[in-house]
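not sure who needs this but someone in the group chat was asking about NlpC/P60 family protein from Blautia parvula so here u go. i didnt clean anything up, its just raw.
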Amino acid sequence: MKKRFLCLSLIFALTAAQVMPVAAARKDEVQAEKANTQSKLSATESKEAELEEKKNNLLGEIDSLDQNLVQVIAQIDILKGEISDKENAIVETKEDLAEAEADRDEQYAAMKKRIQYLYENGGSDAWAQMLLEVNSITDLLSKAEYTEKMYQFDRDELEKLRDTVQQVTDLGNQLEQEKAELEEMKQAQEDQQANLETALEEKKAVASDYETQIANVQAQADEYRSLIEQQNAELQKIQEEEARQAAEAKKAREKAAKEAEAAAQRQEQQNTQKPQNNNNNNNNNNNNDDVENEDVPETPSNNGGGNNENVPEPETPSYEPEEEEQGGGGYSATGEAVVAYASQFIGNPYVYGGNSLTNGIDCSGFTQQVFAHFGYSISRTSDSQAGDGRGISYSQSRAGDIIVYSGHVAILTGDGGIVHASNSAPYPQGGIKYSSNALYRPYIAVRRIVD
């Protein structure tokens, strides 16, 4: 009986020992597959971040081109207005010129009539006749002076009209030249407008291509994340199965040990009762030969290996569940703790696509690594982090919340400032640094990761 229980205990132990190595081998295999998938996911997320950075840079160039185009179009409108003003001035100048020329011609015609009248009525004897008709020398001088003034007036008026015609002509020529210069400037601006529009179309096409690539990369990353979830689920099942098998093996060992101990106790009782039974049997045999002797269990020999205490129990395989993803690091998950931990790395360099808090990291990698220290898993890019956690208003924000800008993300420090990985310039202009004004640029969202 005792040997049977011992064999049963060994069978349970050997069965558990055979099953667990198989589960452990599969567990190692799944963990290796998961590590490979995570490596691919990290590479895909880095590529996505790189494409996002390129797209954001390109969008910045597009914005700059749009602003330049707006300025050029505005300049063209201004030039059109100035050209229109010059055309109106030229029309007015031409009208003034025609009027001045008409006055000049009229004055010239009047002067010719007066000269013609003088000669037709006086002829070569005009001066002699004027001398004969005068009553006195004073009258003679008066007529001579009048005649002289008349001639001088005609000459002065003709000079004025000639100067006026010349001034108006010069002004017209100047306006025409200025209009031509404005036309040239307008043409240059229109050429620049055409070039800017062409450049914009090209860059928008490239940006659209980036968006397609990013969508493909995101789809691939989602596949990797789904695969990791499946692998985590399989690992969880393996761990649960290991725990179940370990519990069953322990229960079987305990049961076998109890049964072996009970068998040993029964054997000991039988050994104690054996001499008495033998005496009774002898008496019975002497008194009644027809009574059969009872079967007495064989007393196990100390050298026969039948003692249960000499059978070693199989070791219970050690099992420790893996550390859960949430709440790791042993630190208090508060907003102030997040800011304090993040501030330890101020002064370290910025590296685009980097993931090291000490050797180089970018803005979204910085926030991801900081929160990962406290067991919180957030996205890898700033655009994706705009959907992580819980959305709140800026007025409700506190230390440890993240603020997402266009193409950038930072951790709010609670005093109106932020700690973030800024750019590749040396610290304090760039790198991981503290900035006192969180609203130095428009933001997209404020998210609470640690409640």
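also The two ends are 63 Å apart (CA to CA). if thats useful
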